[in-house]
């Protein structure tokens, strides 16, 4: 047995004994009180917290809320973002704040926040540099919280991947849009940031598992994106994109229908990468969707059962990554489009996640785009559920 | 593959070139190239290295790039590198043309790269090399400017270089898009030639391709800037000679900067003042099929390294366009032709008939279709294997094609069915002549898997008709009739045949309904122990009484049920009824050992994976001892001799039932299968019994041989079709244990049989109770 292995096993033993994860939630209308309540509840009885993650409805004044959480957290690093909905064991809801605190032995945490307004790829790379600080731990993951347009997210992921490399899984998401007309916000310490990337490197002696699933299935022949612009698909198979899309759906369809028919980008293995589609009846016959030219795409479809089965599969995949260790926490990054698609079924979704979690803490949010890279180099998703299991 | 899927690689390449062309320095181009190449093939890791320096990489932590492994992979063009999080993975290295020591290395966990992915990566590397060389030139110019504070004219030149680089990559991206959109090949090739000319200066570009009819020669496919007379008069070049010929023969870029002193310089070109030329090979699916030529009539023309790269890059694009066009052709061909024989398939054939019908109407001639089916093809397939079956089909296709007139079309419609379209027929006799020619051509044996196989074909001919589908159907009906009249014949379609087919279809429908409603009855014929003339058992036989047609003879409906597969359901019904009946008789009229109940098992039933479970269920449900059930199988079934047949028969034997070979002696009686299969009983066919009471010595000898064979193999023997007491006596004398036939009793319904069993011994019947049983 090598020296390194001995150390890791000892660390794992320590981690098994001492580490913990707790969740606090508050729906108090006052942002400062809500932040304080949720943070206190998550940190109650602990003096060795390592990380505090905050997911708060944008109905709150996030400046006040973030400051309150940071005050309670003291020296413990705080990161988070606004959400379109919040998740804990009690269910999914809006207008609340969920705080996840991780603590005990065997964790290393390093964080960075970088402006992404000029060069998103560079911002991703610089936010990922904090991975180097946790390199001594056997298991690592980089949590990326972002905002901004969806077409720049693959650039952020590409930059992060260029630094983190294939050995470190990436997870994360874009903050949810809290109120109409207002941009999502990122929380870093007691600050609120916009147009930025927050990177949280988690190093751990115990395993970390990532599950990524959506449950949409391809239908019909593949189509080639022959022309695209940022955020728009102009042509499919050399014809106006909306014309081809409508042909497949039998005419112009409202958002409730297009929500159920995203585009899926072909992957060599596993599920296609899904992209949300908006048919906004644009005069140039284009569709609102972030797919680059050259991609081979399918029209996707699913039903509530399919999407719910994906929930189970994502949880299982994340837990399988723990190599038999018990989960301490499940961090859930779920797409707002799935929330809209499932409607009342969302309670069932959270029940399923809680069932898989067993005794583990459950915390998460509804996002406007998800990040998960476990193979290949691409890792931006939409209408997808990402689960990070922490042992 | 869908059209979109097939256009994926060219489109990816177009986007790659567009992205790389936007980079303003070598470092960014290298990084963009590496990341995009990795993304396009979903690889985890990629690196661009020059010598032992890593210019850009992705997938490894910055200080963790496995440089030694990368250098080793670059040297060997492939190898293994460590992928973080996965471990050692296969990697490929693609050299950047023009920079002998630069390589793009890609490593991916999981499946190796497909040929399509490798082609795409090669195109990307080519584009990346070109972009980097152009950027290098700009860098050099920048350095020069810094040193000498260049004049305004130099600045203009620098700007021009920048613009040119942008134009080159844009032109290439445009060409890729044209390929991916499947614009006509001719136009794409023209675009490549003109872009090459435009970007390489005032020289004359041309694309020459190997002449498919005369592969030793090259011909102009597209050109620009050549003297019309020269292009016309000297457009053909020999492979291996001259600049273009050598580029093809040697599969590499050929550069000649002093054409007049080249030993194999061509006189017409010298007269037109050709000064220098270079040609880059053009490939199709990896094979060199031509070259992209750039001729210069300017004295002192020197081709820079960047220009040589650019020509190679354009040649690569032409290769992609040609490969793609060939793939479309191939896809189209595959969609319309039978993959095995290469003959047109049903879709194309139907289209050809329709076309011929229209032509015929215009010319006042008829057209005909011959429908052809190989008799007993299944036997060949089953006994010699599917490989041999395929060989046979290919040979038959060839012989059919050879017997046709040049205007006729042969097609494979599926399985062992072929068809021939005969155009411009004067009269039906002409079609019959062709049919006879085909029959004659197929009469000689065909060697498959080292064995000579004789095939017979049944042919149906139909002439005239309005619609392709009608003509095909009529020929099919005629073929069916030919088959029914005895295999190896041909028949011309007549309207009455149609009625027969309809009648048959009706009967088939009614039979299916009858089976569904359990209306097919079971009758029983006694099997008699010949020594004491006692009742040894019964054979269960299907009897169908049609509500209007009356009793339908088994030879009419059993083959029908065999063909449409309903024999499986019918067989199951008969089996269950017979078992139940036998158990009932056993309970009512117990014997020391139970009497046997023989049930026929067809080939189709034996192919049914549920057969063993069906038999087990019939026994369990009825309570009949397994030893009382005999399953009769024909020799033909045993001929198939497949592993599955043996496995099923063995599994049936394991249930405790006994197996009999029905109609022994009429088929391919082979001692081999008697040893190979777990047989218990031989049933001597009626023809061997027929002659036994006429003093026919030969017939007697044959019957004796069968009885002796059974005896030496320790099998029981049952003679079938005994119609006279004398026959029974002879069989008894020969040592045959049992028999059945009209002499003893005809098949009868169960209540009649019950009455018969219940009759006291000596009550007028030719046999007595109780029975002697099979040993």
Q: State the secondary-structure class of chain A.
A: alpha+beta
Strand order of the largest sheet of chain B: 19-20-22-23-24-25-26-27
Intertermini distance of chain A: 23 Å
Helicity level of chain B, as a percent range?
40-55%
Largest interface: A-B, 32 and 36 residues
Task: List how many beta strands of chain A DSSP finds.
Answer: 25
Explain what you see.
Chain A has 391 residues and is α+β, with helices and mostly antiparallel strands. Chain A has helices at residues 3-18, 31-43, 62-73, 120-128, 153-164, 241-249, 255-259, 304-320, 336-342, 346-357; strands spanning 20-26, 49-57, 78-83, 86-88, 91-93, 97-103, 107-115, 139-146, 170-174, 186-188, 191-193, 196-204, 208-213, 217-229, 232-236, 239-240, 263-265, 273-275, 287-288, 296-301, 329-335, 361-367, 370-373, 380-381, 385-390. Chain A is globular and about 60 Å long. Chain A starts with a helix and ends with a strand. Chain B is α+β, with helices and mostly antiparallel strands and 775 residues long. In chain B, strand 17, helix 16 and strand 18 (490-492) form a beta-alpha-beta unit. The radius of gyration of chain B is 40 Å and the shape is elongated. The A-B interface holds A 131-132, 135, 158, 161-169, 221-226, 237-238, 267-269, 292-294, 296, 375-378 and B 2-5, 7-8, 11-12, 14-16, 31, 35, 38-39, 41-45, 58-62, 64, 83-86, 109-111, 177, 180-181.
């Amino acid at each position: 047995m090598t020296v390194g292995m001995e150390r890791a096993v000892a660390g794992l033993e320590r981690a098994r004994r001492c580490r913990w994860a707790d969740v606090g939630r508050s729906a108090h209308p006052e942002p400062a009180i809500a932040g304080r309540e949720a943070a206190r509840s998550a940190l109650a009885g602990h003096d060795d917290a390592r990380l505090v993650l905050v997911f708060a409805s944008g109905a709150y004044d996030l400046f006040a809320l973030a400051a309150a959480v940071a005050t309670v957290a003291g020296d413990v690093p705080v990161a988070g973002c606004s959400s379109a909905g919040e998740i804990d064991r009690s269910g999914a809801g809006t207008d609340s704040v969920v705080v996840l605190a991780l603590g005990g032995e065997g964790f290393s945490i390093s964080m960075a926040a970088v402006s992404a307004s000029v060069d998103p790829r560079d911002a991703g790379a610089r936010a990922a540099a904090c991975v180097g600080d946790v390199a001594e731990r056997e298991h690592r993951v980089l949590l990326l919280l972002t905002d901004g347009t969806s077409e720049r997210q693959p650039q952020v992921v590409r930059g992060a991947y260029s630094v983190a490399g294939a050995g470190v899984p990436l997870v994360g998401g874009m903050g949810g849009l809290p109120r109409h007309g207002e941009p999502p916000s990122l929380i870093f310490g007691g600050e609120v940031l916009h147009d930025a990337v927050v990177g949280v490197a988690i190093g751990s002696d115990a395993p970390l598992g990532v599950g990524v699933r959506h449950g949409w299935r391809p239908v019909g022949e593949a189509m080639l994106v022959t022309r695209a612009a940022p955020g728009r698909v102009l042509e499919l198979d050399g014809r106006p994109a909306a014309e081809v899309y409508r042909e497949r759906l039998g005419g112009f369809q409202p958002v409730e229908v297009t929500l159920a028919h995203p585009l899926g980008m072909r992957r060599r293995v596993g599920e296609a990468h899904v992209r949300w589609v908006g048919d906004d009846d644009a005069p140039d016959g284009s569709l609102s969707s972030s797919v680059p030219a050259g991609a081979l795409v399918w029209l996707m479809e699913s039903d509530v059962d399919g999407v719910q089965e994906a929930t189970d599969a994502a949880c299982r995949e994340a837990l399988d990554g723990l190599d038999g260790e018990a989960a301490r926490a499940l961090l859930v990054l779920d797409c707002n489009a799935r929330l809209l698609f499932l409607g009342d079924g969302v309670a069932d979704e959270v029940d399923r996640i809680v069932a898989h979690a067993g005794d583990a803490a459950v915390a998460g949010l509804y996002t406007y785009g998800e990040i998960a890279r476990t193979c290949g180099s691409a890792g931006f998703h939409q209408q997808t559920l990402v689960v990070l299991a922490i042992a | 593959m869908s059209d979109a899927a097939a256009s994926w690689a060219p489109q990816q390449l177009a986007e790659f070139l567009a992205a790389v062309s936007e980079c303003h320095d070598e470092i960014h181009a290298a990084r963009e190239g590496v990341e995009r190449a990795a993304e396009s093939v979903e690889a985890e890791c990629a690196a661009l290295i020059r010598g032992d320096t890593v210019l850009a990489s992705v997938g490894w932590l910055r200080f963790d790039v496995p440089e030694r492994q990368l250098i080793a992979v670059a040297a060997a063009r492939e190898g293994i590198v460590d992928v973080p999080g996965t471990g050692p993975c296969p990697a490929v290295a693609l050299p950047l043309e023009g920079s002998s020591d630069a390589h793009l290395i890609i490593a991916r966990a999981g499946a190796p790269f497909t040929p399509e992915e490798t082609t795409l990566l090669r195109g990307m590397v080519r584009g990346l090399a070109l972009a980097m060389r152009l950027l290098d030139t700009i860098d050099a110019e920048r350095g020069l400017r810094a040193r000498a504070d260049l004049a305004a004219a130099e600045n203009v030149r620098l700007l021009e270089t920048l613009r040119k680089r942008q134009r080159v990559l844009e032109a290439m991206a445009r060409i890729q898009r044209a390929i991916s959109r499947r614009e006509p090949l001719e136009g794409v090739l023209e675009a490549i030639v003109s872009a090459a000319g435009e970007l390489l200066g005032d020289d004359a570009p041309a694309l020459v391709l190997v002449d498919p009819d005369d592969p030793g020669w090259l011909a102009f496919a597209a050109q620009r800037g050549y003297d019309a007379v020269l292009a016309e008069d000297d457009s053909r070049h020999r492979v291996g000679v001259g600049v273009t010929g050598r580029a093809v023969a040697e599969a590499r870029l050929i550069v000649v900067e002093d054409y007049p002193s080249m030993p194999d310089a061509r006189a017409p070109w010298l007269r037109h003042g050709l000064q220098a030329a270079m040609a880059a090979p053009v490939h199709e699916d990896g094979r060199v099929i031509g070259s992209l030529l750039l001729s210069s009539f300017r004295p002192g023309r020197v081709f820079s390294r960047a220009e040589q790269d650019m020509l190679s890059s354009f040649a690569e694009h032409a290769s992609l366009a040609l490969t793609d066009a060939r793939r479309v052709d191939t896809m189209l061909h595959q969609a319309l032709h039978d993959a095995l024989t290469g003959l047109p398939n049903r879709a194309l054939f139907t289209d050809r008939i329709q076309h011929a019908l229209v032509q015929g109407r215009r010319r006042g001639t008829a057209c005909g279709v011959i429908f052809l089916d190989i008799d007993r093809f299944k036997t060949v397939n089953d006994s010699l294997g599917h490989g041999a079956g395929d060989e046979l089909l290919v040979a038959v296709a060839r012989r059919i094609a050879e017997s046709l007139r040049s205007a006729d079309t042969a097609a494979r419609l599926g399985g062992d069915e072929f068809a021939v379209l005969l155009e411009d027929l004067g009269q039906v006799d002409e079609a019959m002549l062709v049919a006879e020619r085909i029959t004659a051509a197929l009469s000689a044996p065909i060697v498959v898997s080292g064995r000579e196989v004789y095939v017979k074909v049944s042919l149906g001919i139909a002439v005239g008709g309005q619609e392709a589908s009608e003509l095909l159907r009529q020929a099919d009906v005629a073929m069916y009739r030919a088959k029914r009249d005895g295999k190896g014949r041909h028949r011309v379609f007549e309207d009455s045949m149609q009625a027969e087919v309809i009648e048959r279809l009706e009967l088939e429908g009614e039979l299916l309904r009858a089976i569904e409603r359990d209306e097919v009855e079971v009758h029983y014929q006694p099997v008699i122990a010949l020594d004491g003339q006692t009742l040894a058992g019964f054979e269960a036989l299907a009897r169908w009484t049609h509500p209007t047609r009356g009793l339908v003879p088994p030879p009419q409906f059993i083959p029908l049920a065999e063909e449409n597969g309903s024999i499986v359901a019918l067989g199951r019904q008969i089996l269950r009824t017979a078992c139940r009946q036998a158990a009932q008789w056993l309970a009512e009229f117990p014997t020391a050992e139970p009497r046997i109940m023989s049930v026929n098992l067809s080939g189709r039933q034996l192919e049914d994976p549920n057969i063993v479970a069906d038999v087990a269920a019939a026994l369990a449900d009825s309570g009949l001892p397994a030893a009382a059930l005999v399953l009769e199988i024909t020799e033909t079934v045993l001929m198939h001799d497949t592993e599955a047949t043996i496995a099923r028969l063995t599994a049936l034997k394991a249930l405790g039932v006994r197996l009999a070979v029905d109609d022994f002696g009429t088929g391919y009686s082979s001692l081999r299968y008697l040893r190979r299969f777990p047989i218990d009983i031989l049933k001597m066919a009626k023809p061997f019994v027929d002659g036994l009471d006429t003093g026919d010595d030969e017939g007697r000898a044959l019957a004796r041989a069968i009885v002796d064979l059974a005896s030496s193999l320790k099998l029981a023997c049952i003679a079938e079709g005994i119609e006279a007491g004398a026959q029974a006596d002879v069989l008894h004398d020969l040592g045959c244990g049992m028999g059945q036939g009209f002499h003893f009793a005809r098949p009868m319904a169960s209540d009649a049989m019950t009455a018969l069993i219940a009759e006291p011994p000596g009550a007028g019947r030719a046999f007595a109770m109780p029975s002697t049983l099979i040993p």
